[in-house]
Amino acid sequence: MGRLLVVLLLAGSIAAADRKTKNVILVTADGLRRQEIFTGIDPMLMREKAAGMDKAPGEALRRKLWAETPEQRRERLLPFLWRRLAPRGVVLGNVEKGSAVTVTNRFRKSYPGYSEILTCRAQDDRIRNNDAIQNPHPTVLEYARLSWNLERTGVALFASWDVFRVIGENQPGTVFINAGYQSAAGTPRLEELSRLQLDALSPWNEVRHDYVTAEMAFEHLRKYKPRVLYLSLGETDDWAHDKRYDRTLQAAQYFDRTLERLWQTLQSMDEYRDRTTLLISADHGRGSQLSDWFDHGAQINGAEHIWMAALGPDTPPQGEATNTATVHQRDISATLLDLLGLDWRAFCEDQGKPVALIAP
Questions:
Q1: How many domains does the chain have?
Q2: 273, part of any domain
Q3: How far is residue 59's CA from residue 62's CA, in Å, rounded to a whole number?
Q4: Would you call 308 helix, strand, or coil by DSSP?
Q5: What's the pLDDT score for residue 112?
Q6: What are phi and psi of 209, to 5 degrees?
Q7: Per-residue confidence at 17, pLDDT binned at 50, 70, 90?
Q8: Which residues pair with residue 159 across a beta bridge?
Q9: Which residues constitute the domain of residue 230?
Q10: Is residue 91 part of a domain?
Q11: pLDDT score for 15
Q12: Domain with 30 in it: what CATH number?
C-alpha cells in the first residue's frame, strides 16, 4: 500500500467543476473480438461445423444475424451499442478505419489485460498468465475509494471469473469484490442469486454464468449506489475457448442487452441520471483464422487489438471513431480518473493517459 499512500498524498480534485461525471460504470466482455464488434457475425465462422454452427441453433443465429453489410450485421448482433450508444457516444478500435486500441502488455491474456486496465500500466513478468496471485500494483478502484474515503461498498467489482478476487485490489479488503462462485448477502435478491449460482452451474469451475454476475451487480447498484462499479462478464471468452461460436454470439447478445438495461437503470435513478459515464472494453483480442479465432496469447496475431466505447455527459457524440491516434488499454484507468476529477497523473505516473475522444 506504500506507493498508493504516497500517490494519495499528491492527489487532488482536478477540474472537477468542469466535469458533469460524478460516477463511472466500467464494463468488460472477456475476449470479445473486435471482429464481432465492428462487423457482426463472421462469414468465415457462421457455417463452420468445428465452431458449433452446423446444428439448428447455428442456423437460427445465421437467419437472425446475417446481413449484407458489416454495419447491418453489427447492428443485428449488438443493437444497443450501435443504435443507442454510438450515436450519443463513441466507439473506438476499428483498425480498418484507422482507429486502433491495443494492449501494451506482451502476454495478451486475461489477468495481464485486466490488470493493465485497472493499474494504468503494462504488466511485467509478475503477471504473465492467469495464476491467482495478488495484484502487485494498486488498482484504480482502490485509488478512487481511498481518495474519496468511501465506504467499502462505494467502489465495487462484480465478475464472473473468480480470479478477480486478486486482480481487483493490491490490498485485500480495500474494495467490495464478488467474483466467481461467491455468495452475497444484504437483500433477499442477493441471497436468492447466491443459491441460484450453485443450482445452475456453468460448464466451468472458475466462471459462473454472466446472468448471476450481472444481477448481483444490479442489486448492489440499487442498494448501495456506488460511485465506481466494475462489471466483468466472462462467457464471451469461455465459449470461444470451447470452440462454440454459436454460444459466443449468444453471450455477446446478452452482453449488449445488459448494457442497455444498465443504461436504462442508471438513467432512472436520481444519483446517476446525466451524471454517469459508461466505459466499455475487453481484456484482449483473439485470432482471425479458423485455426486461432478461439485463442489468444503472445503468439496469436491480432490478439493485441481490442476496442473501447463510452457514453456519458462529458463525452461528445462522435459515433464510430476513424483516423485517430492509437489508444492503449492502459489509458482506461487514466480516463476513468480524469472523468471523475481525480489526479490521474499521480496514479498513472506518466504511463497511461486519458483518451481525448472520451474525456476531452
A1: 1
A2: yes
A3: 5
A4: strand
A5: 98
A6: -65, 140
A7: low
A8: 179, 232
A9: 2-37+77-348
A10: yes
A11: 52
A12: 3.40.720.10
